[in-house]
Amino acid sequence: MNLALAKNETGRPLSDSFAVARDRLPGTGKVAEARSAAFDAYDRVGLPHRRIEDWKYTDLRALMREVLPLAPAPDAAALKRAAAAVKLQAIKGARRLVLVDGAFAPKLSELDGLEKGLAIRTLREVLEGGDAALQTQLFTPDSANPLVALNSAMMTDGVVIEIANGVVLKQPLQVIHVATGATPAAMFTRSLLRLGKDAGATLVESYIAADGAKVYQAHDSLVVAIGDNSRLDHVRLVEDAREAVNISSAVLTLGAHAHFNTFGMTSGAAVSRYQATIAFAGEHSRVETNGVNLLNGRQHADTTLFMDHAVPHCVSREVFRAVADDRAHSVFQGRIIVRPDAQKTDAKMMTRALLLSDDAEADNKPELEIFADDVTCGHGATTGALDESLLFYLRARGLSEKEAQALLIQAFVGEAIESIVNDDLRELAIAAAQRWLEARS
Amino acid sequence: MTALLEVKDLKVRVEEREILHGLTLTVNPGEVHAIMGPNGSGKSTLSHVIAGKPGYEVTDGQILFRGEDLLEMDPDERAAKGVFLAFQYPVEIPGVTTWNFLHTALNAQRKARGESPLTSPEFLKKVRAVAKSLNIPQDMLKRGVNVGFSGGEKKRNEILQMALFEPAVCILDEMDSGLDIDALRVAADGVNALRSPERAMVVITHYQRLLNYIVPDFVHVMSKGRVVKSGGKDLALELEASGYAQFEDAA
Ligand SMILES: Nc1ncnc2c1ncn2[C@@H]1O[C@H](COP(=O)(O)OP(=O)(O)OP(=O)(O)O)[C@@H](O)[C@H]1O
Ligand SMILES: [Mg+2]
User: Fold this and answer.
1) A130 touches chain B (CB under 8 A)
2) Does the pLDDT of residue B223 top 90, yes or no?
3) What is the pLDDT of residue A20?
4) pLDDT tens digits, B138-191
5) Which atom of ligand 1 is nearest to the CA of B48?
6) In this structure, is residue B160 part of a structural domain?
7) Residue B16 contacts by C-beta under 8 Å, 6 or more apart in sequence?
8) Range of the domain at B19
């Protein structure tokens, strides 16, 4: 499977790679058929480029060029390096679930003493097992998106978490994706979280690299169903290696009176895209999404959110903050659709970008499509540099230029980070931001 | 004895316009100087140039701090060496707690001087004592820097910083504006408590009243970018009675 892929613009050589890899991919019968169909869907388009509207600012043919071969399963040495990397992400009281090079690592994970009503299986188990309904749900993400289709075709492992009705988990679930690959490779993971009715959970996803891992591609996807009256708090932190690619997709649906609070921060990876679809399927539900990009060098990070208001009386709030230094490029695309039935929708989106250099770029594309008449919707965007008078005040008090900038950057992203309810998780995000700030000084 | 601060024949331009036209001022350790003068005479400009604010072009003259060329130093370097400006208009910094700001600033200055940083408990102890002496409530320290502070609170926050950083030369730009009588007295007491034989103060004000509390050794009158008259503390009383008109022509 260490097929070197030619740097072909269409990404076509991957089909050979898929042909080779498919025997290693879990699942037969219906699963294998679904994979093939998904692969064909990907293969018709290949890597998306700038002439595809949704990828206008993130031309993967230019930025990613190729899909790397499937990563080999981690050996003992790789697991050891992964364990060291995971330590830095430890949060007390969390249940850790670790994926190393795209494979679930039971030794690094905590699967004992599961609370009543909590079930955790690996994606591999589910795809190899006989739960057809669950398998179908795993393939729900939209294959019209080529990277989602590719993920469906290639997904190797992940975690499948089910939380029963009425169960509110006290322990946060922490999924850590670690890349250890010394040789360039791609991993494909998919996870599923199903929250019953009157349930509650906190999910943290971290993407990190073990020492020595440089060039790799993390392709991940997440499927989440939040039942009626349930609440999910979600934090995702992308701290991948600076030469890595991270392509993550999420599809989330909310029942009635449900609440989803999500925070995402990208400070790592050379190229990243997070594309999430959040769909309201029940009334009186609420979503808060907060995002931060902290970028420098030549980093490119794209957050593309699609908020689908299909039913009445739901509220969504999107706050996005981008900090771009050097020649970095931050992209935020926020699409809100309010369908004809979704009266009394209250949807707002606010993005702010802070450019620390003349060569940095922040693109912001809001799209509001409103088909109902009794709604409150709005969006706003600002782009600017650090305030000179604030910088001078701080410097006059003894802070160096970098220290003064760091304090103002912290303040700028702080509002988004403050949205994280759980103290430990907030600390985790602050620490990640701190690492980025320290690396630049 | 080397002067603490020497401004020699300073000429400063802002956006192609000369604001200071050759200003000279010598401040020795232990002295308190008052600078008075009409609006727009260049008092804040002088204070900004001393602190190192960008945007000012020094076309001639010198500023020496303990004999060293201050104009060659970055603003943070000046602060660490002991130059402090209490701003006429302190800025608001949302999202940065006063507490965090003060701790970061103090440790940055200490680091620049090769001193060890203060731990949170050490800092807490120090800042509490200073805040108490200035009647500054603890909860003000938890708020964003100057965010939602009244005019008087902002000024008190400047004095708090001065007391905390223990600078060698303190330039107070209209610290009395916006303060009520009681607040003025507390702030002035705070300033007086910092008077010492090693430390000097430059007090910029429009009102003689402040100088009843902070009694200066010298009073300078600035007009149109120059010091047009210097004298003892009685000069302030004279000005209060006769206004600045007599100096307008001299400048
Ligand atoms: N950034 C600037 N751009 C243009 N002109 C400026 C700038 N800063 C100051 N000036 C001008 O310089 C002159 C001196 O201003 P400065 O603020 O130093 O006066 P001041 O003596 O402090 O006045 P006040 O008593 O009102 O505080 C004024 O005419 C002012 O308009
Ligand atoms: Mg002034």
Assistant:
1) no
2) yes
3) 76
4) 889 999 999 999 888 898 899 999 999 999 999 999 998 888 888 888 889 989
5) 18
6) no
7) none
8) 5-92+168-250
Residue A177 pLDDT grade (very low, low, confident, very high; cuts 50, 70, 90): very high
For chain A, what are the domain ranges?
Answer: 68-384
Chain A CB contacts of B51 under 8 Å are 396
B78 lies in a domain?
yes
CATH number at residue B9: 3.40.50.300
Residue A176 has pLDDT above 60, yes or no: yes
How many whole angstroms separate alpha carbon A120 and alpha carbon A322?
Answer: 35
Domain count, chain B: 1
Mutate to test the interface with B, among A397, A401, A434, A437 (most CBs of B within 10 A): A397
Which ligand has the minimum distance to the alpha carbon of residue B36? 1
The answer to whether A342 touches A314, Cβ cutoff 8 Å, is yes
Could A398 and B108 be called an inter-chain contact, meaning their C-beta atoms sit closer than 8 Å? yes
Report the complex ipTM.
Answer: 0.95
Quick one: which ligand is closest to B40's CA?
1
Beta strands in A197-285 (DSSP E): 200-209, 216-226, 231-239, 245-254, 259-266, 271-280
Mean pLDDT of A209-222: 95
Q: Which residues contact B110 (CB under 8 A, 6 or more apart)?
A: B116, B117, B118
Report which ligand 1 atom has the smallest distance to the Cα of B45: 18
**Total-model pTM:** 0.90
Give the integer Cα–Cα distance in Å for A55 and A41.
17
- Whether A146 shows a pLDDT value over 80: the answer reads yes
Map tokens 């809001």 to a residue: A366
Among all residues of chain B, which has the CA nearest to that of A392? B53
Q: Is A393 on the interface with B (CB under 8 A)?
A: yes
The Å distance, Cα B206 to ligand 1 centre, comes to 15
Q: Which amino acids bring their CB within 6 angstroms of ligand 1? A: B 14-15, 19, 37, 39-45, 55, 88
